[in-house]
Design a protein that fits this description.
The protein has five helices and 13 strands. The two termini are 28 Å apart. The chain is α+β, with helices and mostly antiparallel strands and 223 residues long. It has a single domain, classed as Glucose Permease (Domain IIA) (Distorted Sandwich), CATH 2.70.70.10. The strands form three sheets. An eight-stranded mixed beta sheet has the order 1-2-5-12-9-8-7-10, with helices on one face. Strands 3-4-13 form a three-stranded antiparallel beta sheet, with no helix packed on it. Helices cover 16% and strands 28% of the residues.
Length: 223
C-alpha cells in the first residue's frame, strides 16, 4: 500500500540541483569504483563522473550490491552474514548542500551515529498520509543539522531540514545523503539499518520501498 501511495504522489525532492541528476553505478559489477579509496579520492571519482556527464548530482544505489562496506566492522562481524546490499538511495553532492524534507512530517528522532561506515548525524521524520504512517531517514548530515533539533519539530515538504556533512563526521564517506523510506521503524531511534545481508533482503525490500518511487529522479532534469 505504501509503495502505491509513493508512486502516485507528486514528485518530491531532498536536494535542489542546478543541473541534471545522473544515475551512478557503485555496484560490484562496476570495475571503476575505487573500493578502499579514501573519502577524498572517492569524492574525486564522483566529481569526475558528474562533470563528464554535465550533471549536478549523482544518485542511485537502491538494492545495489556493493563492495564499499568491506572496510567497516559495522557491516562485517563474525556472528552474522555480511551486510553489503544498500536499501536506501544515495545522492552524492558537496558538503554543506542543503537537504530538504521530502514530505510534510515531524521529527521522530535523531542521533549522531559514530564510527567508520556509520551514518554520522541522522534525522528520521515521521509521516502520516491518508492514514498510512511511515518514516523517512536522512543520513550523513552535518553536526549543526541536529544541534538545535527537537523531537516533534514539524517540517513542510520542501523546507530546509539539514545540510550534508563531510568525511570527518559522516562515517568517513564522500559527502552524500542517504535517503531511505521505512514502513515499520521497529522501535529504532535515530537510526535504522541502511544496508542488509542477502539473507534479510526480502524483509528489507518490503519494509523499505524504493525512495525513487517518491523522488522520481529518473524523470527529472533539474529542480
Amino acid at each position: 500500500m505504501l509503495a502505491e501511495l509513493l508512486q502516485t504522489w507528486p514528485s518530491a525532492f531532498v536536494i535542489k540541483a542546478d543541473g541534471k541528476y545522473i544515475p551512478v553505478d557503485l555496484s560490484v559489477n562496476n570495475p571503476d569504483v575505487p573500493v578502499g579509496a579514501t573519502a577524498d579520492a572517492f569524492e574525486d571519482f564522483l566529481d569526475d563522473f558528474v562533470k563528464k556527464n554535465t550533471a549536478s548530482v549523482a544518485y542511485g544505489g537502491y538494492l545495489e550490491h556493493r563492495n564499499l562496506y568491506r572496510r567497516s566492522g559495522i557491516f562485517n562481524d563474525e556472528e552474522s552474514a555480511p551486510r553489503d546490499i544498500h536499501i536506501g538511495l544515495d545522492l552524492w553532492a558537496k558538503a554543506g548542500t542543503e537537504i530538504h524534507a521530502a514530505l510534510d512530517g515531524k521529527v521522530h528522532s535523531f542521533a549522531y551515529n559514530v564510527g567508520l561506515g556509520n551514518y554520522g548525524p541522522t534525522i528520521i521524520l515521521e509521516h502520516d498520509i491518508n492514514g498510512i504512517r511511515f518514516y523517512t531517514l536522512y543520513g550523513h548530515l552535518s553536526v549543526k543539522s541536529i544541534e538545535e533539533l527537537e523531537i516533534g519539530d514539524t517540517y513542510k515538504a520542501g523546507q530546509v531540514l539539514a545540510s550534508l556533512g563531510d568525511a570527518s563526521v559522516n562515517g568517513d564517506y564522500a559527502p552524500h545523503l542517504h535517503f531511505q523510506i521505512i514502513k515499520d521503524i521497529e522501535g529504532n531511534f535515530g537510526d535504522y539499518p541502511g544496508v542488509c545481508s542477502a539473507t534479510d533482503l526480502d524483509f528489507y525490500r518490503s519494509n523499505c520501498p524504493d525512495p525513487n518511487l517518491l523522488l522520481k529522479l529518473n524523470l527529472m532534469e533539474s529542480l
